[in-house]
Amino acid sequence: MSRYTATLENGNELAWGFDRPIGEYFIQLFDPEDEPIFSVGSHVTLTPHPVYPHRKHWSNGELLQVFEDYNDAIPEDHIQSLALDLVF
Fold first, then answer.
1. Backbone φ and ψ of 4, nearest 5°
2. Residue 88, in any domain of the structure
3. Which residue range is the domain that position 39 belongs to?
4. Does this model's pTM top 0.90?
């Protein structure tokens, strides 16, 4: 599994990556107390995204929209890898 993190200006922690065993990209956001704001992935949604509360499965294109919301924190090559369905 690849998992990367960044602390945002508001103190929230962003995590993203690729889980090789299940072939899933994911992105997660936690508040400063480490409580999940959302935790979504291609196959598993642990905590729904507040803008899309009913979405349980995400395509790469849908995840890409969320990744791009945090393009100041996520490296461009990770965003491009998701768009091309490549492991990062």
1. -120, 150
2. no
3. 2-83
4. yes
